[in-house]
Please model this.
Amino acid sequence: MLTNERRQVGRAMPRIDAPLKVTGRAAYAAEHSEPDMLHGAAVSATIARGRILEIDSRAAKAAFPGIAAIYTHENRPNAAWLDRSWQDETAPPGHTYRPLQNDRVLFDGQPVAFVVADSFENARDAAAMITVRYEVETPETDLTTKLAERYVPPKKRSGISPPPDPRGQPEEAFKEAHFRISGDYLIENEHHNPMELFATTVLYGADGVLAIHDKTQGSQNVQKFVCNVFSLSQDKVNVINAYVGGAFGSGLRPRHQLFFAVMASLDLKRSVKFEIARSDMFYLSYRPAMYQTVSLGADAQGRLTAVLHDTVQVTSRYEDYQEVVVNWSGLAYRCDNVALTYALTKLDAATPGDMRAPGAASGLFALESAMDELSYEVGIDPLELRRRNFVHFDQNENKQLTSKALRACYREGAARFGWERRQAKPRSMHEGHELIGWGMATGIWEAQLQSAKARVRMSANGQVIVQAAASDIGTGTYTILAQIAAEALDVPAEDVSVQIGQSDLPETSVEGGSWTAASSGSAVDAACLAIRQRLLDMAQKDDASPLKDATVEEVVIRDGHLRLDTDPRAGVAISELMARAGETAIEEEGKAGPDAKQMKSFASYTHSAVFVEVRVDEELGLARVTRVVSAVAAGRILNPKTARSQILGGVVMGLGMALHEESMIDHRSGRIMNHNLAEYHVPAHADIQDIDVHFVQEFDDKASPIGVKGLGEIGVCGVAAAVANAIFHATGKRIRHLPITIDKILGETVGKAA
Amino acid sequence: MPSAPPSLRTIPITLTINGRRHDLDVAPWTSLLDLLREDLKLCGTKKGCDHGQCGACTVLVDGVRINSCLSLAVMRDGAEITTIEGLGTPERLHPMQRAFMEHDALQCGYCTPGQICSAVGLVSEGHAHSRAEIRELMSGNLCRCGAYTNIADAVEDILEQQQKAAAE
Ligand code: FES
Ligand code: FES
Model:
């Protein structure tokens, strides 16, 4: 039997890519080069809506003899014409933005010219000398003035469920409810701001083959995009994203730096690198601003009798970006009268994009704030209210759940936090000049499985190589894939070589939605099973083999032998099997994907309970989060170390959402004013104190073949609400407008969104 | 060599980088960060903002941590520079690098070299005595992956080891 010390899966091993990363040896997209390569720089529009009248680059050309090309809408090389050629696998419906397509300016910061020169500085400085004349039109960028122009997106975005039809009699039930609360919630645009700048390095091969190092969450998604847009065959385009310096969703769609670098490289037949500036990162993608209304009705015991959740969310003029915002309100708690509506409104802005727990992070802020408010109305503990409304199935789709250990999250999270010591009344806990507040919220995210393939190669000498076109954007993919193969083939995980982040490896969808561990992990597991089957076939060629009558389920790989699980003494050395078959290694592919039949009757979610302590300085209005407990139910945990980090990261982003993050737009010009890291505040060391991550036991044999549900998003879900609820408990002020900054804490905001 | 506007010439400087002497001709506007990354291919030092707002580009200049994006290379003529590559190698990690690995004080790894150089600088400054001080004095290094608590653990670990060693 396998002893615990030998288990590879479930072991808190350090990341296998850590030695390269802590020594600066891991090379990111902009860190590949070639002698005499060219560098790009973009000129960004300084208006949010209008037309380009003239672009004058004479001064730049005169000053910089090293300029290789300046591209504008007037001279750019041809690219694909059809919309569908520009639509990557994650694109929303609409007309995908095409850089330099024509003279129209659709959003602030849109690149209007691209300079290629012999050094980074020359390209940057030449770009700064290019002047652009515009015909300016009045932009509309304020969501709150565009609520009336809401519309239901005519075409649904693939992979996104629209709200379910209403059930029961929501309006009537709300009117007749014993307890009723209703509130409007406003969230501002937030930007992903991964630490690595978006960059693409195109190495132009002698044979015309492009090696493209791109900052992306999917090398094959980028490969297909480049092939479609530039009419290239796949064998001419190799995309590499071996190391990705964070993305959080911003790297799902191919970004314009890719287009520019490839365009220039093909045109000039040279290698080109283009790394965008931090300020330009604010023009790529963002978590969209939205206006939400949640109304809850409950009976005398606090059981929900009506849930109404309505959202109007920002999108661009040219695409209908959609996320799942309101559906969570129909499945988080038991309720028979539910109305959920979701609409978009168009602004003069770039298309928003998926950002860590897209939709859920925003929707749960409103729902979980409302649940907190209801608990005070009913007069029971907020945690008790949630327990009373527990639901064990997906009421939106009327499906069973593959597992839901949320009660354990409530119980164990509350115990770790010390929730029972909470004094119910707002403003009842303080220390010195600080008010103390304790708040909590539930988190939910969908546990999904996507199609994924993987190849595993095992050599006679025990070397193991895992290959897949998966990505590791800081998530720990390298490490967990090594652990899965190591456990199946019984070698130390440290000895497994994992090759991912390359488009010519086995097919994998983009890294997103928390599905990589479950999907690619299951594919690796399947490949290892196929290896075991091959070995067994080899063994059974020998009539005297002790494994003669065994099935693949009855054999295991141990110590370089194929053995009977029930009788480990009966076995045969793998090296011997391979030698007999004349092989030095065996290689198998495995695949995983959603099980359509099971999905008809089962839905799968990860859950969490988040508990937060805030301390609010009453005079200064300063709120600090001093303690967080995040108790998570996410099926099997492959590596407690990297899993914990995933939750830590989600919690920190949630704290940023709650207290700091907001892209400020000057609505007169339609321009983002704080497009830098000094004025757009992401949490810093000093903001982050104690975060306790706890995984509850949850067994799930349906969410994925390996029992994993995924962790990338669940950490952020519910955090903003838990903070807002803690601030209410501390101060008695219900703030429904994120981020909760000092002015809102000091100001008169009770009962109003804005 | 990349072309420059004809009226401007490069300036000769000498830098000792990770123990190796470099005689260089640099353009007056080249930042220390771009010199390291683009000209010397020492890409362990990262660019996260180019404006002194994120700390990804932190290196040690004569033992002191600085944002290399805020320094022109020509300003550092004669200096000793240590980058992440000079602290340790994958086979022989610096204790701070090892502590980062063990505490999982990194996720995507992009802020990591800057965090480590900053932490090494912090320890030698000798101002940090508590976790609160570590947090405060490391606040120039942003980590969007949110590895902060683990980074603080790693730095605290090294500080304690040092204090213990000093006490013995
Ligand atoms: S790159 Fe120097 S501080 Fe950000
Ligand atoms: S580890 Fe990704 S930014 Fe710090």
